[in-house]
Amino acid sequence: MRGKDAALLQVINLSKSFNSFQAVKNVSFELYPGEILGLLGPNGAGKTTIIHMLLGLTSPSSGEIRIFGLDPSKAREREKILNLMNFSSTYVAMPYSLKVREALMVFARLYGVKNARQKIDALLGQFELEEVVDRPVRALSSGQMTRLNLAKAFINDPEILLLDEPTASLDPDIADRTRKYLIEVKKKRKMAILYTSHNMQEMEEISDRLLFLHHGEIIARGTPEELISRFRGEDLEDVFLKVAREVRA
Ligand SMILES: Nc1ncnc2c1ncn2[C@@H]1O[C@H](COP(=O)(O)OP(=O)(O)OP(=O)(O)O)[C@@H](O)[C@H]1O
Ligand SMILES: [Mg+2]
Description:
By secondary structure, the protein is α/β, with parallel strands linked by helices. It has a single domain (9-92, 158-248), classed as P-loop containing nucleotide triphosphate hydrolases (Rossmann fold, 3-Layer(aba) Sandwich). It is 39% helix and 23% strand. The protein is built from nine helices and nine strands. The chain has a six-stranded mixed β-sheet with strand order 5-6-7-3-8-9. Helix 3 (100-110) packs across helix 4. The chain is globular, with a radius of gyration of 18 Å. Residues 47-48, 164 line the site of magnesium ion. Magnesium ion binds at residues 47-48, 164.
């Protein structure tokens, strides 16, 4: 995986300030094809802000981002990036008045997806949305909305996927199936996935590597096993509690 392949995404000394508040401080990391990189840290650590900068929704105060070698802060380059990347986040504005199938069709057209109907049917099945295909998006429960967000994220068969708490409101069964699906696409299609979650068991299960953010800084990084052994935790949850409490103290 690493070593052979070039990084698809590179972040170099990235910082973001909102007025005098520094939300992200000097963050550097790379994302390789065929890996799931977990971004973890307490509420307000800067995870979503990083994802928004990667999407070009927020501009960095300093530092560099390169995705497929392109710069998302430049409109023309961002357009190319967004064709090959996708994301899921509760911040995504959905066409709320459309029915679920129509909403997915809008995204399929946006990305110029071939065989859109077939693709949408497969995604509706994968994320168990068949039951709600004819309901307006605004009527969906929060877990159903999350599933729609996931289906939308896969519509263009992205090479890079940015997932901000994708399983937060999913029931345990579909959450488990979603994790397995992510591991499968990572392996089969060499998809590169950046992932955030507050579920440490989930992070331990699916992440190849982890970045631990606190107050906008990366305070630890490594595989789940490395972090567990370095912080002498029983598991990742234990590591989180130790590290978060230590830095808060
Ligand atoms: N537009 C903004 N203006 C001012 N402060 C902001 C803005 N956006 C984010 N912040 C602040 O930046 C910090 C990082 O926020 P961010 O949403 O990135 O955290 P997070 O790690 O995603 O947290 P959570 O786990 O709660 O989702 C927070 O303290 C937040 O209040
Ligand atoms: Mg967040």
